[in-house]
Amino acid sequence: MNFYKLKKILLRLFNSYVKKHLGKLIIALFLSIVVAGSTGAIAWLLDPAVKKIFIDQDTTMMLLIPIAIALSFTIKGASLYTARIILIKISNNVVKTMQTQLASCILKSDINTIESKHSGKYLAHFFYDVGQVSQLVGSGVLNLMKDSLTLIVLVGLMFYQNWNLALFALIMMPLAVIVAKSLGKRINKAVTESAKIEGGLTSYLSEVIKGTRMIKIYQQENFEFDRSTKKIDERTNIQIKIGSILIRATPIMEILTGIMIGGFVYYSGFMIANGQMQINNFFSFLTAMMLAYQPIRSLATINMLFNQGAVGADRVFNVLDAEPSIREISSASNLNIKKGTIKFEEVNFSYANTKKEAIKNINISIEGSTTVALVGHSGAGKSTIVNLLPRFYDPQKGAVYIDEQNISSVTLSSLRKNISMVSQDIVLFDDTVRANVAYANMSASEKQIKEACDLAAAGEFIENLPQKFETIIGENGVRLSGGEKQRISIARAFLKNSPIILLDEATSSLDAESEEKVQNAIMNLTKNRTTLVIAHRLSTIIRADKIILVNRGEIADFGTHNELLKSSMIYKNLYSKQLSA
To answer: Cβ distance 93 to 21 under 8 Å?
Structure first.
């Protein structure tokens, strides 16, 4: 990462997240000054300690100087502890703000943006990248303040004691800077690679957990274990590489310090012999120089810590800065439902990852309070049509209207408030039955929740559950059957009480008994509501007021069941396959 980009990221990090804690940061800075001053005092006190105690044997100073040294250490320890506590609080508040913004960004992002990145990558941003920022703010900032101030005080003391020796000691400074700059480039590359590996590992583990049943039924445990081992090895190797780079400064600094101290002892021996330096000055200077070793070593690696944090912050900022493709216009008004008529007018749509049009020249007219079924082969474009209505995606061409109102000119909240969706891909939370049903209307009363469940033919099985409505159903309803999960989903739609219903193959994976119960629930749900349904089951298709045949992204034909049997060979073939299934 070049200097200008690093500077830009750090400035944004400061202005957006750290600046609001400026008061606490100033206190931490003051405490860092106290740490630096007390460290310098410890080194300086050795001068009078040697002279007054060991040479002059002053009995009064034998008591006062040790007390002063102990007090200096106490002040240093208390100040450093308090400064660290302050920076820990600041860094965790920065993490909290970043994670809150990430959560908000994910929740507000459009479907296309979310689906363009694996869920594991978002988890890596949420934990790994934000963790790197936390290290920067919590450790990097404190070390920068504490160590730079301590170094300034100790160097000042060294010049006070003997400026000739101090100049000799300063030879180490530019060498430390060169070391830091060289290692900084390597750590930046390694941290960027590490972030990708962390994201890949998180994505892989997420897939393994979700695909446990498939892995077991196909007996691929050993294969997946090998894959996981390779990914964990990659992570281990990159972490070892980063750790190695971080500590590479240590032996270099040790060598430089050894050369410096050796030269200092040699040179100061001549100065003491010639009367140019007292033995007490020598010990004080040596202590200051030895104490300066730690902040110099720390500052030599501070560049790497800042690079790590900047890489993490940059990846988080890329997510936060991504503009959603589904937006409201500034003059958007609330959707006003009267009849619930729906109209698709010359609609074309292509997914971002393909140039081929998913649907083209779609013209559909649906009367209010009627049921329209979309039928066609898999991949014909049925789900795409349905997903355009709640603006999960926007068409590249054409427009969709509800009661003559262009849905792109109304607020998203009012649009989605008036639409309920039940699909074959049921989403349930690891919570109680009550919480899953009430998700559609958090303010619903107990009576409303039970009525919705009864209408969805779910009341009976819920009463047979161990804790009834308070039963925890597990991740995505794992403790329920397919039919039970679907009826919970339908109950949720009942509770929302929307005038428009979207059904996406809601009964495709159910057995005959479950299907009958779910079909009855769907009939209750869709009564007197505008319904757009994707279906393969004959029972659903035949009951529709109008059937629209979708073929290769286009409307091939439409009419009633009997009309299409006469006019469309494609429909007749689909119908025949259903009969023989």
So the answer is: yes
Per the CB < 8 A criterion, the answer to whether 491 and 421 are in contact is no
Write the DSSP symbol of residue 392. Answer: S
Computed over every residue of the chain, the mean pLDDT equals: 84
One-letter amino acid of 403: D
- Model confidence pLDDT, tens digit, residues 247-306: 776 777 777 777 777 877 887 787 877 777 788 878 888 888 888 877 877 777 787 788
**Cβ density class 188-215: b for 16+ within 10 Å, e for less:** bebbbbbbebbbbbbbbebeeeeeeeeb
Does residue 42 register a pLDDT over 80? yes
Q: Which residues contact 316 (CB under 8 A, 6 or more apart)?
A: 98, 102, 125, 129, 130, 133
Are the CB atoms for 215 and 224 separated by under 8 Å? yes
* Distance from C-alpha of 332 to C-alpha of 244, rounded to nearest angstrom: 56
How confident is the model over 108-152, as pLDDT tens digits?
Answer: 888 877 877 777 788 888 888 898 899 899 888 998 999 999 989
Q: Are 360 and 344 in contact (CB under 8 A)?
A: no
Sole residue written with tokens 């689906």: 115
Domains in the chain and their CATH numbers? 17-320 (1.20.1560.10), 342-580 (3.40.50.300)
CA distance 525 to 506: 12
Which residue type is seen at 29? L
Q: What's the pLDDT score for residue 510? A: 58
- Of 198, 535, 567, nearest in space to 380 by CA: 535
Strands (E) located in 408-564: 419-423, 500-504, 530-534, 546-551, 554-559
Tell me which of 21-30, 197-206, 246-255, 376-385 is least confident: 246-255
- Looking at residue 536, its pLDDT comes to 67
Distance CA 377, CA 386 (A): 15
One-letter amino acid identity for 102? L
Choose among 377, 383, 332, 410: nearest CA to 506: 383
Per-residue DSSP letter, 92: H
What pLDDT is stored for residue 538 in this prediction? 67
Q: In Å, how far are 63, 84, 124, 543 from 131, measured between CA atoms?
A: 48, 17, 10, 56
Total residues belonging to the chain: 581
- Classify residue 446 as exposed, middle or buried by CB count within 10 Å of its CB (0-12, 13-18, 19+): exposed
Q: How confident is the model at residue 81 (pLDDT cuts 50, 70, 90)?
A: very high
What end-to-end distance do the CA atoms of the chain give, in Å? Answer: 61
What is the per-residue pLDDT for 322?
A: 83
Q: Given pLDDT bands bounded at 50, 70 and 90, which one contains residue 80?
A: very high
554-559: strand order across its sheet: 419-423, 500-504, 530-534, 371-375, 546-551, 554-559
Question: How far apart, in whole angstroms, are the C-alpha atoms of residue 220 and residue 218?
Answer: 6
